[in-house]
Specification:
Number of strands: 2
Distance between the termini: 75 Å
Order of helices and strands: HHEEHHHHH
Strand content: under 5%
Helix content: 55-70%
CATH architecture of the largest domain: Orthogonal Bundle
CATH topology of the largest domain: Multidrug-efflux Transporter Regulator, Chain: A, Domain 2
Strand order of the largest sheet: 1-2
Largest sheet: 2 strands, antiparallel
Shape: elongated
Length: about 150
């Protein structure tokens, strides 16, 4: 019986996963992707299973997981001994971080709205150097710029 396993070049792998070739090389370098077999000429040959692994890595990174968390998630994804609650705990910790960042962004949004409102009320249309936003930025947060 003749078994044929197709191999992929780095260009084909990049196209299939939506990653760049430098990113794929980086993931190899840091051990997220096993080093591929190489031809005598040094060309990398990847296995079709690398598409799934890189897609998983890309999804994790798109969700904002750190490289170390991606590494842990990869380990968990093939482990029969470890509990899936570890995966949940990683996702929960990341969710907590995202929610904290959203709170920070909402506070930033309020400050920026205050800047725009104060400019509209006090100086819009006047000389740029006289814009109240410059004073607000150099004085830090106060009730007039943050409310």
């Amino acid at each position: 019986m003749n078994v044929h396993v197709s191999v992929l070049t780095i260009g084909v792998l990049a196209k299939a996963t939506g990653l760049t070739t430098p990113t794929i090389r980086y993931y190899e370098e840091i051990g997220l992707l096993p080093a591929p077999k190489r031809t005598d000429g040094g060309q990398r040959h990847y296995h079709p299973s690398d598409v799934e692994r890189l897609t998983f890595i890309k999804q994790c990174r798109d969700f904002g997981f750190s490289i170390e968390r991606v590494r842990t998630l990869l380990d968990l994804s093939v482990s029969r001994e470890r509990d899936c609650s570890e995966t949940r705990d990683i996702a929960k910790a990341h969710l907590d971080e995202v929610q904290a960042k959203l709170r920070e962004l909402r506070a930033l949004e309020l400050r920026l709205k205050g800047f725009v409102r104060r400019c509209d009320e006090a100086c819009s249309g006047g000389p740029g150097a006289d814009c109240v936003i410059f004073g607000d930025l150099s004085q830090g947060c106060n009730t007039s710029c943050c409310a």
